[in-house]
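Sharing in case it's useful to others searching the archive later.

Someone asked me privately for the predicted structure of Molybdenum transport system permease, so I'm posting the question and my answer publicly. Question first, with the sequence:
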Amino acid sequence: MDWEAVRLSLRLALLSVVLLVPIGTALAWPLAFGRSRARLVLEALTSLPLVLPPTVLGFYLIVALGPRSPLGHAWEALTGTRLVFTFQGLLLAQLVTNLPFFLQPLVASLGGVDRRLLEAAATLGSRAPGIYLRVALPLAWRGLLSGTILSFAHSIGEFGVVLMVGGNIPGATRTASIALFDQVQGFDMAGANRTALLLLAFALAVLSSTAWLRSRERAWN
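And my answer, the predicted structure tokens:
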């Protein structure tokens, strides 16, 4: 078992979720309650990672994070290092890749919030941000938790985008899924079996958790 790769996967997933929660929570507001046509565009853009082939997404992320891009150039001028094939670049790529996995359960839960409660808060003088943060979001906590768990789990298992943007650098960008790929290529089937079993057990635990949360949400409604 490549425990260094496992630890790097956990660190990457944890940091990804820490950054994703505030960004995704802000984006969920217009997606759940917006009425303009811009909401449809935003929904399509944030859902793209679900349907794009990982190679296509990885290619555009390399272009967006590369040294010739404004972001990559600014990062290199600021830190003296490149974003592509580094942990920091991989973290940014994971934010984009995991965004729909966080947003979809949260937006669905927000859509189920009783609008009369939101209208009552508005009549009491609360403004839209306050209504969202103090009324809608607490009522949709199961969706928030489901999105957090799903995005964490997807970050652990992501392969294609990780390989394209991060490469396979031990201790820097080699995650558990990349280590498994290496073990298979090196005919270390016993090691590959252990890594695959670990990822399988983790995925089953995550799916069981989210299924339980959905069942509790249905019972509550």
